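<amino_acid_chain>
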Amino acid sequence: MDILIVGSGGREHAIAWAAAKSPKADKIYCAPGNAGIAEFAECVDIKAMEFDKLVAFAKEKQIGLTIIGMDDPLVGGVVDAFEAEGLRVFGPRKNAAIIEGSKAFSKDLMKKYNIPTASYENFTDPEQALAYLETVKMPIVLKADGLALGKGVLICETLEEAKAGVKTLMLDKQFGDAGNEIVIEEFMTGREVSVLAFCDGKTIRCMTSAQDHKRAKDGDKGLNTGGMGTFSPSPFYTKEVEEFCEKYVYQPTMDAMASEGRPFTGILFTGLMLTEDGPKVLEYNARFGDPEAQVVLPRMKNDMIEVMEACIDGKLSDVTLEFEENAAVCVVLASDGYPEKYEKGFEIKGLDKFKDQDDYYVFHAGTKFDGDKIVTNGGRVLGVVAKGGDLKAARKNAYEAAEWIDFANKYKRNDIGKAIDEA
């Protein structure tokens, strides 16, 4: 069947790569796509939020399956738009995607159903938020309720910082309407782990674990970004932790959403903090993580399209997910200045070195064609991924491969996966 992927980042490149391996996939389209995705798919000039155009295209081309990669269209109801026209689409409906679209909703859901998470309060009034800050201990975490490109979380060390954060989110509207409501949450310490899972509304099947690196600079300094690199699996996600989460987090979340009349079908991403008091949920996302997908999908043995179809058909209980007994590391190559100001349009050299390489991949995030050349077109430009027999080998391979690529203003973190040394 012909397949349509919606999105334009590194995650969508990884999804296109995995889809292209499936015997079920015939022609693949991607809207809008990027220069790397063009290797596997025909890129279509339709933006991710142009639902009517996407639906019309899927009907015209008789698309057998549409895969929604991005959060904005999911939260906006793109799945509902496709289903209304009888089209097969992979992703949660609008009333389920709210688990990512509203942090206040997800925190209230966890409280109601006793899913372990940090203590918190929600605020729509900045004055009440400021008054509450006077009563809590620092550091504290402020979260914009809505979508903010993964950047709407402020970790505040002092009361002054926290008050300034409320102003940034609620009054200055740095993230627009996403800051109309905020969550003020206790600061948790521990190891972070990301777990992606396929869901069919009743059954949940977890993939291998991963860990993201959100901050822009080495040593977890600098501003929050969309993600500067990942490794998989996490050595800190032990069998004991996994069993706890299956019992108290993953299935209870599925059951809670079903109980609320919001059955969740698609990818549920659970961000965990492994605290001294046990694992707790940091956040949920309603789609593949980026750059988590880039290290998880290359390790998956299953046919991704087959698993997605099982989710749509409510037959996920028949599926057993299998992953390679190895490791993968992704190093993001960004434009210097990201996530604030940066320049675009620089030619990228060295991409050909990844051709015909079994355990090395380069997933495009912010790229485009300029004539015959591929040039930078975003803050996060490329995700360089390498496998290895273990995490240390994968890390060494990924950093070596990152040097194969060259473009002006290239920037990367040099400590992705450094935590492996402490495992």
Q: What stands out?
A: Residues 131 and 163 are 9 Å apart (CA to CA). The longest helix spans residues 239-259. The two ends are 44 Å apart (CA to CA).
